[in-house]
Design goal:
Number of strands: 0
Shape: globular
Length: 173
């Protein structure tokens, strides 16, 4: 550890800067966060769902949490059928987090449709995270499914990306 003393010796003003106006993404995120509370109802799903594929990860997170606050039975089929890769990953993460354990086979099938190698680099870690959540939240799959998935993940290891390797090791274990 270390202790430093930093002092300013310039001539520019040191008055606090004013707050920046909120960006469009910040306003959208705040509107989605308003859906995180009790009693927001099923309209929260319709409002938040289109934003699961948003470019801003904070907006995606707010949309996912808004959906997770609703009964999973009301949106599970939609999550399993989502075709936009980014939105599908977010929806399947939500389903793994709050869905019924009986949905695990369908969740695994939906995740399996997302070809890891075909995904852009930005989606690979979230996809692996979705796989991890499917197992940590819903339990170990049957032995035959686990063996098939182990072969699938083993073929990806080692990967050029160290972070991908770390997630793959977790899955393979």
């Amino acid at each position: 550890s270390a202790l430093y003393r930093v002092t300013y010796t310039g001539t520019e003003s040191t008055a606090p800067a004013g707050a920046l106006p909120p960006t469009a993404e910040a306003k959208l995120r705040q509107s989605l966060e308003a859906l995180h509370g009790e009693g927001t109802g099923p309209e929260a799903i319709a409002t938040a769902w289109p934003h699961l594929g948003h470019a801003d990860r904070f907006v995606r997170f707010a949309a996912r949490v808004a959906i997770e606050r609703q009964p999973a039975a009301s949106w599970a089929d939609r999550a399993l059928a989502e075709t936009r890769p980014q939105a599908a990953i977010e929806a399947l993460i939500a389903l793994a987090r709050v869905g019924d354990k009986a949905l695990q086979p369908k969740l695994i099938a939906a995740l399996d449709r997302l070809n890891f190698a075909a995904q852009p680099a930005a989606l690979r870690l979230p996809l692996l995270r979705a796989w991890e959540l499917a197992f940590t939240r819903m339990g170990k799959p049957p032995a035959d499914v686990a063996a098939t998935l182990a072969k699938k993940f083993d073929a990806l290891f080692p990967h050029a990306d160290a972070l991908v390797n770390r997630e793959l090791v977790s899955l393979l274990i």
